[in-house]
Design a protein that fits this description.
alpha/beta, GMP Synthetase, Chain A, domain 3, seven-stranded mixed sheet, 34 strands, binds coenzyme A, binds adenosine monophosphate, Propionyl-CoA synthetase, propionate-CoA ligase activity, EC 6.2.1.17, ACAS_N, AMP-bd_C_sf
């Protein structure tokens, strides 16, 4: 078998041959004219001229290859007390039937559809039905509030919305339809139809114009066939947090995505077709898109759709039960889930009740894997614990331990080596490449491999300004870190205003816009501070308007509610500090980076451009009072 270095070198020295070979695993209606179209950098396009259908590759071809009876989806929902298995043949029929219903309602290739659904198999059916028709889906995570949904409706301009009547979140029953109605009410763009999957525990009122009942629609629909699309046609738009209130619509194509995800299942995750793969995330995040839906299904693995939490549904043994009951070979989740389990069951007593003999590897991503959580998980489970680093933008890992090629010894704190196809470098602020061990900005030399973002939906300029302009010829990841002398990459955290709360990527800029709109607030800054369970949480530093008479507890409650109602409960905004001034440069720029360093307990240097140094001391003091360690160099 080829070793990592050989495969890696091949992928960078001759990417076209490398990915053309990988693309042979996908069924094409028409092969590509060029493997990599580099004619319009930085807009590189993979498999230009090729035609395929992602749904065909993920569903129909397994049935045609004789695997119709195999299990495609295991739906495990402790919150509704349900375990249900769906074969590939059943999945194909359901997807074709829903695609037929969507077609009947006017959906066609190139349209967009928003999917706002919890973790039920119908969410996957919805995504695949869109892919079947060449319709571009945009899934919005259920934890986002109506305002955030409205922003996405206006930007994606969906012809329809597919939603469920509701979800169960832990012990709470949540109605989704009123949120969808509120979002449509707010948005300028009005989708023509809202198709609602009615759940047993909560029936939505379908009284609005354009409301349709999913189950009834599907019953009489004529099944639809797969529609050939260009490799470079969009498969989906997934909005992710940038540094402002306007999220970025990451655009994923069909061809490169199918090739890369198929390749990753063996080479990164060491899976075989027929194995059971479980990504304990949500279809609303990129992890869900890539590794609940497309990756496992493209490769012929059974995917687990888990509607529950790591703790409380019903206990901290939930993950072990699912692994044992469904013979899961690889589990992929965020470190925060393990911190939650550890908090409730530090001795791992629940594990003793289950037989995990089929379980081979734990994969973690979404936030930095702290060494404590790494060691705890490793000792408890006795299987390799593999950290890997990636982003919504890339759809698959940039840095990982390539378990299907060569397993490297783990260095806690590092996600191991650059993944095949990614030329990862560390640059200083002037664009000079740094020496091993020196910390700087993590970038990837262009072209990015297949599967990574083609552009930002309806915003080519932002694609360039966000990722491509600071270091021409490179993609700027927004993360900082270093590579050691053995080539291990250490990702230390974001260098911009994006934070990770329980593995959920959110924008402090978006929160600032909301906090700043409070009638008593003159100006504010929201920064991420460390949290032992969720990794990070937001903290608002607020300057009151002159003459404002506002008590901090009351203000904090009001701001928390405003952020919750606007962004959603997942923002977890619960802490506000009132300060006299915010630290600024002489030109008036708020020194967010320095405040972030203070809050992270890192050493910070007094910036030479600071207008009033006493300001930072005041903030450091305020943070100390609420329990954050502060060091100044
Ligand atoms: N729909 C509606 N509300 C949701 C939601 C959804 N899909 N997901 C979360 N929320 C709500 C929660 O109910 C909670 O509301 P509350 O403030 O009223 O209690 C709030 O958003 C915060 O949710 P969360 O951050 O998930 O916190 P939690 O305390 O409920 O659970 C963990 C903490 C660690 C157990 C949980 O975050 C988890 O399982 N994380 C796993 C990692 C993961 O899935 N990462 C995603 C990317 S890989
Ligand atoms: P998202 O786009 O939601 O997947 O979030 C991507 C961001 O999460 C990255 O830019 C990192 O800041 C962080 N992240 C994801 N995985 C890791 C990891 N393994 N180690 C450190 N940070 C990570």
């Amino acid at each position: 078998m080829e070793k990592y270095q050989e495969v890696f070198d091949k992928s960078l020295n001759n990417p076209e041959d490398f990915w053309a070979e990988a693309a042979e695993s996908i069924s094409w209606y028409k092969k590509w004219d060029v493997v990599l179209d580099s004619s319009d950098p930085p807009f590189y396009r993979w498999f230009r001229g090729g035609e395929l259908n992602t749904c065909y590759n993920a569903v129909d071809r397994h049935v045609e290859n004789g695997h119709g009876d195999r299990t495609a989806i295991i739906y495990d929902s402790p919150v509704t007390d349900t375990v249900r298995k769906m074969s590939w043949a059943e999945l194909r029929d359901q997807v074709a039937q829903l695609a037929g219903a969507l077609k009947q309602q006017g959906a066609e290739k190139g349209d967009t559809i928003i999917v706002y659904m919890p973790m039920i198999p119908e969410a996957l059916v919805a995504m695949l039905a869109c892919a079947r028709l060449g319709v571009i889906h945009s899934v919005v995570f259920g934890g986002f509030a109506a305002d955030e949904l409205a922003i996405r409706i206006d930007h994606a301009q969906p012809k329809m919305i597919l939603c469920a009547s509701g979800a169960i979140e832990g012990k709470k029953k949540l109605a989704y339809k009123p949120l969808v109605e509120a979002a449509i009410e707010q948005s300028e763009h009005k989708p023509e139809k809202t198709i609602v999957f009615q759940r047993d525990f909560l029936q939505a009122d379908l009284g609005q114009p354009g409301d349709l009942n999913w189950q009834e629609l599907v019953k009489d629909a004529e099944p639809a066939d797969c529609v050939p699309v260009a490799a470079t046609d969009p498969l989906y738009i997934l909005y992710t947090s940038g540094t402002t209130g306007m999220p970025k619509g990451v655009l994923r194509d069909n061809g490169g995505h199918a090739v890369a995800l198929h390749w990753s299942m063996k080479n990164i995750y060491n899976m075989e077709p027929g194995d059971v793969y479980w990504a304990a995330s949500d279809v609303g995040w990129v992890v869900g898109h890539s590794y609940i839906v497309y990756g496992p299904l493209l490769y012929g693995c059974t995917t687990v759709v888990y509607e529950g939490k790591p703790v409380g549904t019903p206990d901290a043994g939930a993950f072990w039960r699912v692994i044992a009951e469904h013979k899961v070979k690889a589990l992929f989740t965020a470190p925060t889930a393990f911190r939650a389990i550890k908090k409730e069951d530090p001795e791992g007593l629940h594990l003793k009740k289950y037989d995990l003999s089929e379980y081979k590897t734990l994969f973690l991503a979404g936030e930095r894997l702290d060494p404590d959580t790494y060691h705890w998980a490793k000792e408890l489970l006795g299987v390799p614990v593999i950290d890997h680093w990636w982003q919504t933008e890339t759809a698959w890992a940039i840095v990982a331990n390539p378990m299907g090629i060569e397993q490297f010894p783990v260095k806690p704190g590092s996600a191991t080596k650059s993944v095949v196809g990614y030329d990862v470098k560390i640059l200083d602020s002037e664009g000079n490449e740094l020496e091993p061990g020196e910390e700087g900005n993590i970038v990837i030399k262009l072209p990015l491999p297949p599967g990574t973002l083609a552009t930002l939906w309806r915003n080519k300029e932002r694609f360039i300004s966000s990722y491509m302009s600071r270091y021409p010829g490179y993609y700027e990841t927004g993360d900082g870190g270093y590579i050691d002398k053995d080539g291990y990459v250490f990702v230390m955290g974001r260098i911009d205003d994006v934070i990770n709360i329980a593995g959920h990527r959110l924008s402090t800029g978006a929160m600032e816009e909301i906090v700043a709109s409070h009638s008593q607030v003159a100006e504010c800054s929201v920064i991420g501070i460390e949290d032992s369970l969720k990794g990070q949480k937001p903290l608002g530093l607020v300057v009151l308007k002159a003459g404002a008479d506002c008590e901090v507890d009351k203000l904090n409650k009001e701001l928390s509610l405003m952020v919750r109602n606007s962004i959603g409960p997942i923002a977890c905004y619960r802490e506000t500090v009132i300060v006299a001034r915010l630290p600024k440069t002489r030109s008036g720029k708020i020194l967010r980076g320095t405040m972030r360093a203070i809050a992270a307990g890192k050493e910070y240097r007094m910036p030479s451009t600071i207008d009033d140094p006493s300001c930072l001391e005041e903030i450091a003091m305020a943070l100390k009072i609420i329990g954050y360690p502060v060091e100044q160099s």
